[in-house]
Amino acid sequence: MEKKKLSISLKIAQLLTIVGALILSVESRLSMQGRSLCRTSGCEVVGHYIRFGEPLLVAGGALFLWLLGAVFFFFFRYPKQLSSLPFLFLLPCLAFDGALIGFQVFTVQRICLLCFGVALLLCCITLLYSVSRRSWLIFLAGSLVWTGGVTASGIIEMPEPSGAYNSMVLIRQQAIGPTEHPDLTMTLVFSMNCPHCQEVISYLAKHPLPGINWRLAAIDQDTESLRRLGYFLQLAGNTSNIFTALHKSETGPVPRETIPKTATIKQHNKKALSFLVNNGTNSIPLLIIEHSKRKREYISGTREILAVLKKNHTSSLGDTIVNPPPSPRQNQ
In the chain, which residues fall in CATH 3.40.30.10? Predict the structure, then answer.
């Protein structure tokens, strides 16, 4: 009777493995089409950080679960010869999953429900395998490996990527007209899908600010936004105010022909997203006022940014920089 119960626990573990493999296989197929079973914004944000791409990560997870299901299949037939093989398959996967979860919780502070679902699935499979082997040490070892992966991501503070502040920039525009502060630079980080960003861009399109060096960086990764950004770069070369071109590409129609350099734009945008996360800034639009190489001011929020921009029209440039509205973060 006891052997029958142990066999049932293994069969449940195998069934969970196959269900997980099927779900990840479907997700892999959808991700190649730009869709996902996970509707949360966290899934999209986390996917931007995968070095070799989210589709390959999901496909790798599906392949692993299919292989684990095959291991369970042969384990039923050769229990003595393959007694430790399922555990050897689970250990590296638990470590990898723990590191991925820790990165989400502690670094980007965004939760991917699909990733947490896979973590729960692996926990259940490990528990059922531990019950079948009548050894809680197996479950304890798996838990420690997973926790170690989470903890490693939690105790390491990621520095600002080398050159990210410069490499995230899509376009630069030198100051128009005479200026008393030639080194003063403002960087606007925005999204094509952000209505608050559109408000700031619309203002700058109507009220260009003289005497300021501008840099623009975006965080968008979706195909339509990349096409619009590509169209913006085409328009920007023929205007003295890049915000006019940006506002037109945001709100107007975009030609249906292929827009070049979208892959390059996507790489710049990944750098911008990485820069925001590693600097502890979680909101856009973001205005960065760079006084010098060692001093930057970070101003987020539409109201705060517009206050700085409007002040530029009513006071001297020096007053604007000396007395900006309270900013959420300063980097001296």
Answer: 164-331
Longest dimension (CA), the chain: 89
The strand order across the sheet containing 213-218 reads: 171-173, 213-218, 185-190, 286-292, 295-300, 329-331
CATH architecture of 2-155: Up-down Bundle (1.20)
Q: Tokens standing for 286? A: 């973001």
Residues 56-69 have a mean pLDDT of 88
Q: What is the pLDDT of residue 197?
A: 93
| Residue 17: closest CA among 55, 60, 65 | 65
What CATH superfamily classification does 164-331 receive? Glutaredoxin (3.40.30.10)
Amino acid at 45: V
CA atoms within a 13 Å half-sphere pointing along the CA-CB vector of 245: 18
Residue 120, both tokens: 């729960």
pLDDT band at residue 122 under the 50/70/90 scheme: very high
**Range list for CATH 1.20.1440 in the chain:** 2-155
Q: Answer yes or no: are the C-beta atoms of 105 and 154 closer than 8 Å.
A: yes
